Known about the structure:
Elements: E1 7-10, E2 16-20, H1 28-35, E3 38-43, H2 52-59, E4 65-68, H3 76-84, E5 89-92, H4 102-107, E6 111-113, H5 120-135, H6 138-146, E7 167-171, H7 175-188, E8 191-195, H8 201-216, E9 224-226, H9 230-236, E10 239-242, H10 256-261, E11 267-270, H11 279-288, E12 293-296, E13 315-317, H12 326-345, E14 349-350, H13 357-360, H14 376-379, E15 382-384, H15 396-401, E16 408-410
Parallel strand pairs: 2-3, 2-4, 4-5, 5-6, 7-8, 7-10, 8-9, 10-11, 11-12, 12-13, 14-15
Antiparallel strand pairs: 1-3, 15-16
Helix pairs in contact: 1-12, 2-3, 5-7, 7-8
This protein binds 1,4-dihydronicotinamide adenine dinucleotide and 3-hydroxypyruvic acid (3PY).
Catalytic activity: (R)-glycerate + NAD(+) = 3-hydroxypyruvate + NADH + H(+)
Family: Belongs to the D-isomer specific 2-hydroxyacid dehydrogenase family.
Keywords: Glycolate pathway, NAD, Oxidoreductase, Peroxisome, Photorespiration
Amino acid sequence: MAKPVSIEVWNPNGKYRVVSTKPMPGTRWINLLIEQDCRVEICTQKKTILSVEDIIALIGDKCDGVIGQLTEDWGETLFAALSRAGGKAFSNMAVGYNNVDVNAANKYGIAVGNTPGVLTETTAELAASLSLAAARRIVEADEFMRAGLYDGWLPNLFVGNLLKGQTVGVIGAGRIGSAYARMMVEGFKMNLIYYDLYQATRLEKFVTAYGQFLKANGEQPVTWKRASSMDEVLREADVISLHPVLDKTTYHLINKERLATMKKEAILVNCSRGPVIDEVALVEHLKQNPMFRVGLDVFEDEPYMKPGLAEMKNAIVVPHIASASKWTREGMATLAALNVLGKIKGYPIWGNPNQVEPFLNENAQPPAASPSIVNSKALGKIKISNVGTVCLTISGFAGFKALSSQQLHHIGA
Length: 413
Ligand SMILES: NC(=O)C1=CN([C@@H]2O[C@H](COP(=O)(O)OP(=O)(O)OC[C@H]3O[C@@H](n4cnc5c(N)ncnc54)[C@H](O)[C@@H]3O)[C@@H](O)[C@H]2O)C=CC1
Ligand SMILES: O=C(O)C(=O)CO
């Protein structure tokens, strides 16, 4: 039997019971829920990662929906418990949902939400920060300074890499990978090589246009190339940033053999998920190649690092903070809450999870829709088309009913 968990309750008389497994930034998400007759219960237990038993205790006998975290194991056991409690909705407060067994959720008819878009630029900025910090050895130099070792300017002190004119490689050029690529190309005039299962057309157009602009101004134009294999990126790029989803196809994408194909002085950045890199192989590679550098936000056995990593001077390690800007974290909380609310209220699903701005406008009511439900197709949920209607502010289900048939379609229909 799990110990009782401590909770904070908002709007105790609300009709729908929504549980958040963690306090989340801001209050807008709470207000949006209580305005719609939800009783909001927030777990305030001083324990960073809640166990399945803890969460079962939180769900209790009656629960309409849960907002959870990427550190939690949302599988058969939890979805069965949520279903028994009458729950119909779960949302991760994260865009990645590799901690969620979506098939198990489908089995119980539970909607699974995530929070795309609002963290794109923030996460890309951290990847860019790690790239720069690694290229210019900022963490090593900072430690040196604080240790009182600086006794005067020297021609060879902390010499790093110039990014301008080098090649940036992106693996997984989706929302975040493309945003990172744009930052590195525009900010540092790097050439781009990327690998993704799909063509990143907008990104290609951006680099082409920027290259033309530079050329027109008498500068060396930047270039882009879509690689036909990931290995091509690893061989050619000077800085490589990983941004794919974590699934069976990307587990240990970077392993001993692939590390060996990279340039000896390359920089590798990971702001996706830890298991995309074989971290044991990485530690060995860092030991053998002191000029090879990494910037890591995520770890294979998070929150732990593989033995030896913490001692490596050529590794910069930060604790999974890539999405940690105030605006983004508050926005993630809002999207997660609205995903759960949308299902409870029977709203349709927003048609384009890449255009979530209307949900984030603090001066307007959010659209009556769930911003992003990843298993909408399996649940046969109605999608609302927001193409060209990003300012749509229908309020309530009646507004949704009033939409024309062109604006609604069944997924897969
Ligand atoms: N460190 C952090 O705090 C954060 C980490 N993330 C991670 O970043 C991931 C990506 O997020 P978004 O860019 O929003 O998702 P996205 O879905 O827009 O992009 C992922 C891209 O990976 C590509 N991809 C999938 N399998 C691949 C493969 N085998 N090889 C190459 N490319 C492949 C997809 O085609 C897609 O373009 C999330 O799933 C999450 O795990 C996201 C936000 C913050
Ligand atoms: O959204 C995600 O996937 C995260 O990793 C949280 O920042």
